[in-house]
Amino acid sequence: MRLVTRGVRSALVTALAGASAVVAWQWLIVQGNYSGNWTGLFCTGERWKLPEELRARTVVFPEASGYDGQFYRLIAYDPLFQKGYAALVDSPRLRYWRILVPASAHVLALGNAGWIDAAYIAVVALSILTGIYWTSRLVLRHGRNPRWGLLFLLLPATLASMDRMVLDATLAALFAGFLYYSGEGHARRFYAVCALAALAKETGLILPAAAAAAAWMGGNRRRAAAIASAALPAIAWYVFASWHTSNAPLPDIIEWPGWGIVRRAFTFYSYDRNPSLTPLLNLFDLAAILGLALSLVLALRWVWKRPPGAEEISVLLFAVLALVLGSRDHMRDAFGYARPPSPLLLALMARGVITGRRWTLVPPLMVTAGVALVLVRPTMNALAWLVRFYT
């Protein structure tokens, strides 16, 4: 009992340390790039209209389209369609389906508009903390050092979420809980993780689908039906949100399986802002796409050799997702194409640590290197600000 308590404490300390490092990095980025205005993390572009009550206190990127976090921020201000903010969202139906993080921010802020931005950033930080904690508990259960849970920080989903307030770290954290609770016998917690994942993103439906499929294939049809019902809250919300939103055209991001990866491997971009670094940047791009391809091979090899449990089926489904997502815009950099399969990368890294085959961490970390390229410029700006501040 004392050993278990010590392990829980170690996992919690690891999670707190990792989340604190993220918040410290965000503070530095905000000071060095956005003059201390934390709304810069939402990456709001000038090409999208903002409500007048938000414009004055929002960092807006001139002549830019911005990034996904700007839309989820609007949803956090108007989760139940009372202010008409849905009309300002690019794909309102799809974005509103992904209600978990915006609604959590709204609830945490007690509906107070002045607190919602801070609450949203806090929800993302708590997601990262939880993801590290569950990953630490997972590897600890197999006798590994809980500090390996810090690998969660290196996921593309985590890096993108802490920089641009997207939802992927929350889904990745719930997947870490899925991996942990699937082997612990905590049926209620496992069910809750599956239900919340489906509310975080529609790809989170993979979790209850995989668990239900594993139970069905194992002959336990009652359990299969029970775990499948975890998707019902999300489906009910999807229907409700669809009644209140227009069905804007969805981005064309589906390709023939694997074609997007092959095409991206032979596509080289010119980086106008850093022409002297273009060869190096293209090398990192190539390493990232090769890392993703190798990760998919490792995942499929792993699934092929093991009985079809919930973990294996979920990894297979995330691999299929990575194979079919392949539009040119989506595949331009690892910041885009590496976020959806982040749960797969997490499963691979955790398995590499647990089995002692740490060489299997290399392909996912190759993807991480490509994602980190996007963070270099704002980090350098922040460090330059820090030097000026202390000199």
Summarize the structure.
This protein is mainly alpha-helical and about 400 residues long. Helix content is about 65%, strand content about 0%.
SS content category: mainly alpha
**What string gives the helices and strands in order?**
HEHEHHHHHHHHHHHHHHHH
With strands numbered from the N-terminus, the spatial order across the biggest sheet is: 1-2
Residue ranges: pLDDT <50 for 5 or more in a row?
none
Strand segment tally: 2
Average pLDDT, to the nearest integer?
Answer: 90
Shape: globular
Enumerate how many helices there are, as a single number.
18
The level of helicity is 55-70%
Work out the radius of gyration: 21 Å
- Separation of termini? 52 Å
Overview of the structural elements:
With about 400 residues, the protein is mostly helical. The chain has one domain (about 1-390). About 65% of the residues lie in helices and about 0% in strands. Strands 1-2 form a two-stranded parallel sheet. Helix 9 (about 185-200) runs parallel beside helix 12 (about 230-245), helix 10 (about 205-215) packs antiparallel against helix 11 (about 220-230) and helix 14 crosses helix 18 (about 360-390). The longest helix has about 30 residues, at about 1-35. The model has no long low-confidence stretch (mean pLDDT about 90).
